[in-house]
Structures are given as structure tokens and as C-alpha cells.
């Protein structure tokens, strides 16, 4: 039994300010902790959160597993780009640490394997590999990841950017790796969630469509007043 067992068949909600808008008024640990408390009250089985401050505040506000990540920099690899970021997030209270597991160069010149090793050595946190392709998922599991997520599909040169979620990647990963597969990235409605579970997802992660008033409102406004 580990924290991923608690997630089986459930909805994980990502409580984060918008990555591409530094002025998102939701960029505040207290606010994100209240959002997290609300989604857990609504039935979320886990919360995904960014940065040590938000992870600490959310850990204090909810009693479900917290998936922590540490976005940093503007290089290709920005989700928990180094072992030091990963250990810091685990120390802040994340039960699970989400790490970019693509094979792109990292700012410290080290590898995903180094991050897994550092987490094992210094913390009890589990490792969630954020990937964009099946090959990256398979390599991540060989490197010791406890689970994989489709988070980066559509955000790397190696993966197509579809309007909706990458359900094909969920199915292909579920057939290829012996660990839980989390469906994440551009899930917007119940129908897509159902299709992810049918494709073999262990859990589905939704972010902006649930927790970003800025993202939701911009999307609605652009639909009624196209640019
Ligand atoms: C690519 C990247 O930076 N993804 C981030 C990962 O933590 C978040 O910005 C996303 O909001 C999250 O993955 C959930 O996805 P969506 O908000 O589409 O439901």
C-alpha cells in the first residue's frame, strides 16, 4: 500500500495559479489552501500543488495526499527541474513529488535518475514522473518512478499539442508500464474523465478547469468575444 492506492478511481485536483500569468491574483498560499480545502470537501482524492509555500499551506489544510512540484525557470525543463527542488518540495510536506522525467537537459546538468536517488536518500516521498511520450514513461519507471502522469504531453517537441487531453497516451502508457498512470493535461469535462478511466487511467488530474477563475473566465470571454 502506498499513497497512490488512495487515488485509485478518483479525481485529483491541481490547485495552482496560472503558470503563464505572474499577476494571477490567485498566486497566494492562503488562497490556494482554501481552494484545496474546498476541492477535498467536494471529493478530490488528492491535491497537486506548486512550490514549498503552497505545499506547506495545503498540507496543513487537507488530509489527503499532496502531490508537490516546484516550477522554476523558463528552460525546457521547469517542473521540479533538479534534485534540490525535489527534496525541498518533499521536505515542505509533499507525499508525492512530481518531476519532469523527459530526457531534455536540466539546468544542473544532472538526470531524472539523480532526482529519484536524492528523494530516496533524503525523504520518504514517492516519485511521480511527468512525461510526454510512452518512451519517457517506460524510461522513468526503469529509473524508479512510482507512477507516471501524462502532464507534459502537448508541451514538448516530442508530443502533439491537441486541443483536448492526450487519451491515446494514457492507453499506451497503461499497456506499457506496471505502475499507476495518471491522466493529466487539458481535462475539461466528465466525458473526458470517463474516457481516461476507460483507457486505463488510475486517476485523473484536473487543474485550470476547476481551480482557476482567471483561466475559466478568459476562456468563456474569448468564446463570446473572439479576438
Ligand atoms: C504543463 C504544465 O505546466 N502543467 C502544470 C503541472 O503541474 C499545470 O500548469 C497544469 O495546470 C496541470 O498539469 C493540470 O493541467 P490542466 O490545468 O490542463 O488541467
UniProtKB/TrEMBL annotation:
The EC number(s) this enzyme carries: 5.1.3.9
Membrane keyword on record: no
Molecular function as annotated in GO: N-acylglucosamine-6-phosphate 2-epimerase activity
Annotated keywords: Carbohydrate metabolism, Isomerase
Pathway of action: Amino-sugar metabolism; N-acetylneuraminate degradation; D-fructose 6-phosphate from N-acetylneuraminate: step 3/5
Enzyme class: isomerase
CC per GO annotation: cytosol
Reaction(s) catalysed (UniProt annotation): an N-acyl-D-glucosamine 6-phosphate = an N-acyl-D-mannosamine 6-phosphate
Pfam family, one: NanE
Any one Gene Ontology BP term: N-acetylmannosamine catabolic process
Coiled coil stretches, renumbered: none
Known function: Converts N-acetylmannosamine-6-phosphate (ManNAc-6-P) to N-acetylglucosamine-6-phosphate (GlcNAc-6-P).
Family membership: Belongs to the NanE family.
PANTHER family given in the database record: N-ACETYLMANNOSAMINE-6-PHOSPHATE 2-EPIMERASE-RELATED
Protein name (record): N-acylglucosamine-6-phosphate 2-epimerase
Naturally occurring in which organism (per UniProt): Micromonospora krabiensis
